[in-house]
Amino acid sequence: MSNNKIADNIYWVGKIDDREVPFHRLVLSSGTTYNSYLLNTEKPTVIDAVDLAFGREFVENLSKMIDPATIQYIVINHTEPDHSGGLAALSGRAEHATIVCTEKAVDELKEMYKLHHRNFLVVKDGDTLDIGGKTLLFKETPYLHTEETMITYCVEDKILFPCDIFSSHVAVKALFEDECGYDITDEFVGYYNAIIHPHRRYVRTLITALESLDIQMICPSHGYILRHDIQKYIDIYDKYSANTIEDKRVTIVYTTIKNNTKKVAEQMKSIFEANQIQTTVFNADKSDMADMITSIQAADAVFIGGSTKYADMVGNLEPLLIQLKEMNLEGKLAVAFGSYGWSGEAIEVIQDYLNETNMDVQSTSKVIKTTGMTHVEFPIRIRFTPKNEQLQKIEHATEFVTDLLQSAI
Ligand code: FEO
To answer: Whose CA is nearest to atom 2 of ligand 1?
Structure first.
């Protein structure tokens, strides 16, 4: 047991996977690790499991250290199968254990591993759990990098268990970064760029949350445990997620029937301006074509929106879209949007026109393929007056474009 000891009664119980691992459309040629941790307290607790492929091996190895039936809690910080997969095998042997996770994670875990009959403890931001000799503090970290994620902090040992966050993809036997014999910064930044950076908006919240914690060790769920110069790694996340590019401009052009599409445009403008992005809005029916074209040429992102009538666009939008096809707009982001009542054909027609330009047109498919996010949708389709969850839809999409414009990388 002592080989894998990382602190008082805390042990690494993960799996080194030295295969070429397919991962988020990458191939990890150096493999990775799936780090899991046993806190062998009065109420034994396992934090995170391993990849689905290694569930049985994980439980066999764990059984050499502890009778799984005595495990009281299994903390799942993040439901992706490279960390929750071992839960299928572990929960069968740790049959009385309570599964600890966020509210969003419960249904996912129940469905993924047929755990409908199991006890779950739902924790919220700031909740603590006494595991008999140690205290766990939970902080929700939504969208880092999926919606249900949280991090766990062991108060007495000052150890952070952040799952994917602060990870690196390496398959080596050294547990600690300061024992590996080389500088891991490139690997650490490479992981950040690939997995975390698309969600950098939420890294800002994380950095703030960490300020209240005294962290002496970071035990992530891939790669090295960090215990030397912890602040250096936190500072990398802080620096890379910061907004560094100024003077970005957005042009929004719309036509509208009952002002609902106008309201969408105004909502987007207020979000951009809150992020210090200069935003110009045109009603195409009341604006000069040359002014709109000039503004679009100077913009970094172009939003074109329209209401739908008789399954088509309304007003003076089509002449503008025809002109855009003839222009060189390379390097600009483009988004179609609109309010509609029934089918919203105009929004799709606008999207088709934008796809014929050389702008980088945003689509739900592209977002999923590049980031894995499922809460950001393009084109932005709003039914009737934007309110409630429709406002959230506008917010998610606008913030996504803001992040693309403000990328530090
Ligand atoms: Fe390491 Fe999001 O999985």
So the answer is: 80
Domain boundaries, the chain: 5-240, 249-406
Strand partners, 74: 46, 99
Residue 224 C-beta-side C-alpha neighbours within 13 Å: 20
CATH code of the region 249-406: 3.40.50.360
Could you say which architecture CATH assigns to the domain 5-240?
Answer: 4-Layer Sandwich (3.60)
Residue nearest to atom 1 of ligand 1 (CA): 164
Q: What is d(CA 202, CA 243) in angstroms, rounded to the nearest whole number?
A: 12
For residue 155, give the H/E element and its range: none
DSSP one-letter code for 125: T
| Closest-lying ligand 1 atom to the alpha carbon of residue 149 | 2
How far, in Å, from the CA of 23 to the mean position of ligand 1?
9
User: Which position has the token pair 């907004």?
Assistant: 243
Q: What is the pTM of this model?
A: 0.79
* pLDDT by 10-residue block (mean), the chain, 409 residues: 84 92 68 95 98 96 97 98 96 97 98 97 98 97 94 98 95 90 92 88 93 97 96 95 79 96 97 92 95 91 96 95 94 96 96 97 94 93 93 96 78
Which of 398, 393, 305 lies closest to 349, judged by CA?
305
Which residues have any ligand 1 atom within 6 Å of their CB? 78, 80, 82-83, 145, 164, 222
* Gap between the Cα atoms of 109 and 35, Å rounded: 19
Q: Ligand 1 centre and the CA of 80: distance in Å?
A: 6
Counting from 1 in the atom list of ligand 1, the atom nearest the Cα of 221 is 1
Calculate helix-pair angle for 318-326, 345-355, nearest 10 degrees: 20
Q: Which atom, in ligand 1's list, is nearest to the CA of 32?
A: 1
389 to 53, 241, 260, 375, 392: CA distances (angstroms): 38, 27, 15, 11, 5
